[in-house]
Amino acid sequence: MSGAPGEVPLSIALREELGDAIETARTSQGELTLRVRREAVARVCATLRERHGFTRLVDLCGVDFPERNPRFEIVYHLCDPAAGRWARVKITAGEETPVPSVTGVWRAADWPEREVWDLFGVRFEGHPDLSRLLLWEGFDGHPLRKDFPVEGTGD
Amino acid sequence: MSDELELCFGPRHPAIQGVLVLRLRVEDERIVECRPVIGHLHRGLEKLFETRPFGEGLPLTDHLDLAAPVTSNLAYVGAVERLLGVEAPPRARFLRTLFAELQRIASHLLWLGTHAADAGAVPPFFAALRERDRVLDLWESYLAAWPGGEGGLRPGGLSHDLPEGWSERCREFLAEFPAALTGCEGALTESRLWKKRTVGLGVLAAEAAVDLGVTGPALRASGVAWDLRKARPCEAWGEVDFDVPLGRNGDTYDRYRVRIEEMRQAARIAVQCLDRLPEGPVLADLPAELEAPRESEVYHAVEGPRGEIGFYLVGDGTATPWRCHPRAPSYANLQALPEICRGELVSDLVTLIGTLDLGLGEVDR
User: Fold this and answer.
1) What is the CA radius of gyration of chain A?
2) Does A7 score more than 80 pLDDT?
3) Which of A153, B226, B241, B311 has a CB 3.0–4.6 Å from the CB of B79, allowing a cystine?
4) Which of A61, A86, A106 sits opposite B325 (nearest CB)?
């Protein structure tokens, strides 16, 4: 993302503040990606917002890798508009492991977290109303999982 | 005694481009709570992206923002190019910037006409849609120069160059447009009636707008100077001069003023693109099969008429994306609707929906 010289100091500063909550920090294609421990994601995001100016949650979505364990990745795209910096935060999640909600950090996370629940079946702990978003209550399955057939299940 | 009432607005309503349900709690004609229910236009586009090669995913992006498909195309091809390590030639970058700005004009004009008509001002509707037709004619005559009409943006550039006489027709339109726009806004900008209906209505504070993920004119009308064309310029936006209009109060009138001024700036950019159009090819030399590197990912976004339209792509070493997630501006902006509705009159609801300029196609995907 941003090629600004602020990137390396950011990952170093975060390691100092958050210790082992940050698993890896890597820059590829000019984009900074932070792999974060699942339990710590809300704390990491709050720190990024309060101390480092990442006031915008640009996007939040899930990715399914069925051969991995845990199989899901939750991807957060953040932006620090004042400094023109971007960062990507990633955690892993399984079918049964709930993820801490970041709705308390950015209100923008409300619908995206519901959507990830709806389409991937990942639960977010602390979300005020984790109902389905694009599909209807009572829909069977989570269609963006790789094992859900493209043609549907006849529901 | 409470006179609280529950109302269900939608799913079909002339003020909505698409299908949307709003569950309202109303007290004495004032909106206490508004809860959008979305998904009526959900077509599983993200699943479909995973079933076809990168190039064949492009037509799916037409089905996101139905009023501005070109900017969805542009964000997608930009993301694919970065994932695959391809670069569009300079001439294509200028032409794509030109097309995106024409698309901004067309999209804002559609918004202007329908928004004004929703609020009871009908004449601007005809004036705005007449101008929009001229933009659509330009786009159509460009597309018609390609057999089958399936030309346009491509990963690596454009399918074909401008047809004979196109830039002259485009210049003619751009020369006449500022005056035509003044005609469109004549019945509104200084009108006491229009101001009475829009000034102070649906105020969105700057901090709330940022927190809710709002982008585009709806964010800038709240006084936040944030435009991806300046913050992270791609295509030819870094090489042209333009201003980013801002509002102060974040109300319906400011959002109106910002979009009007954005159209003037868009025309200014478009003229510069034509003036400085480099010579050369419009499509990079690409292998027949475009394969993404293993375990690759990219997020690429452009400033569309409604705000930040971006794509998050994950590649797995094949010619098909493992994951393709569009970040749709209307999706985030719609989350601000409950905020701007609270305390307003039910009779203003249609104006409040209009002021956000939503594309339900990209909300539901």
Assistant:
1) 16
2) no
3) B311
4) A61
Distance in angstroms (rounded) separating the CA atoms of residues B115 and B108: 10
Rounded CA gap, A121 and A133, in Å?
12
pTM of the model: 0.91
Cross-chain residue pair A108–B213, CB shorter than 8 Å: yes
Q: DSSP characters for B187-213?
A: TTTT-HHHHHHHTTSS---HHHHHHTT
Nearest CB to B44: which of A86, A107, A143?
A: A143
Looking at A29-33, A44-48, A76-80, A130-134, which range is the least confident one? A29-33
Of A58, A63, A75, the CB nearest to B308: A58
End-to-end Cα, chain A, rounded Å: 41
Q: Are A10 and A33 in contact (CB under 8 A)?
A: no
Residues of chain B with pLDDT under 70: 1-2, 149
Put simply, whether B364 touches A (Cβ < 8 Å) is yes
Mean pLDDT, rounded, for A121-145: 93
Handedness of CA B138, B143, B144, B145 (dihedral sign): positive
Q: Is B336 on the interface with A (CB under 8 A)?
A: no
pLDDT of the residue at B2: 67
Chain A contact present for B23, CB below 8 A: no
Q: How high is the pLDDT of residue A6?
A: 44
Yes or no, beta carbons of A63 and B322 under 8 Å apart: yes
Q: Is the pLDDT of residue A5 over 50?
A: no
How far apart CA A149 and CA A152 sit, in angstroms, is 5
